[in-house]
Amino acid sequence: MRHRTRSFMRGGAVALVLALAATISIAGQTQSPAKPTTAKAAPASAAADGEPVTLRRLLSHTAGLTVLGFPGYAVGAPVPTLVQLLDGVSPANTAAVRIDLKPGTRWRYAVAVTK
Q1: What is the secondary structure of the chain as a DSSP string?
Q2: What is the C-alpha to C-alpha distance for residues 56 and 20, in angstroms, rounded to an integer?
Q3: Cys bridge to 63: 43, 57, 92, 98, which one at CB 3.0-4.6 A?
Q4: Which of 39, 108, 15 is nearest to 69 (CA)?
Q5: CA–CA separation, 81 vs 101, rounded Å?
Q6: Does residue 71 have a cis peptide bond before it, meaning omega lies within 30 degrees of 0?
Q7: What's the CA gap between 15 and 36, in Å, rounded?
Q8: DSSP 8-state symbol, 47
Q9: Do 80 and 92 touch, CB atoms closer than 8 A?
Q10: 38-86 pLDDT, tens per residue?
Q11: Alpha carbons 52 and 15: distance in angstroms, whole number
């Protein structure tokens, strides 16, 4: 398969389907449906009003998180770590990801955008 440097679909769009399938498979093997997995990395927020950010809410776009678009990174450009990306610290090219809506109250889709 020949590598293309220009594509209409970002790697994240394809990887999302694979990550979702793997996550559901692993969660189904290790977690009880009665006890949802909570995202422990989510910072405390008054907007959360005590509602947890769960795996189900992350995957269903109802976690109440900010940053609605990720522009991606040019080939060869520095790529942030997960912590840098979530905190909006360079070389991240987006603001910090935070809880700004009470989890579970609204559907909001984050998309990859093109510069």
Answers
A1: ----SS-SS-HHHHHHHHHHHHHHHHHHHH--TTSPPB-TTSPP-GGGTT---BHHHHHTT-S-B---EE----TTS----HHHHHHT-TT--SPPP-B-S-TTS-----EE---
A2: 11
A3: 57
A4: 108
A5: 25
A6: no
A7: 23
A8: G
A9: yes
A10: 655 566 688 888 888 887 888 788 888 888 778 888 888 999 988 898 8
A11: 25
Distance CA 100, CA 112 (A): 20
- CB atoms under 10 Å from CB of 97, counted, come to 20
Q: What pTM was computed for the model? A: 0.64
Where are the strands (E) in the chain, listed by range?
A: 69-70, 111-112
Task: Give dist(CA 74, CA 6) in Å, integer.
Answer: 11
Domain ranges within the chain, ordered by starting residue: 11-112
* C-alpha span between 63 and 40 (Å, rounded): 13
**Terminal Cα-to-Cα distance of the chain (whole angstroms):** 26
Task: Compute the distance between CA of residue 32 and CA of residue 13 in angstroms, rounded to an integer.
Answer: 28
Specify which residues 69 forms β-bridges with.
Answer: 111
Tokens 């990306």, residue located: 85
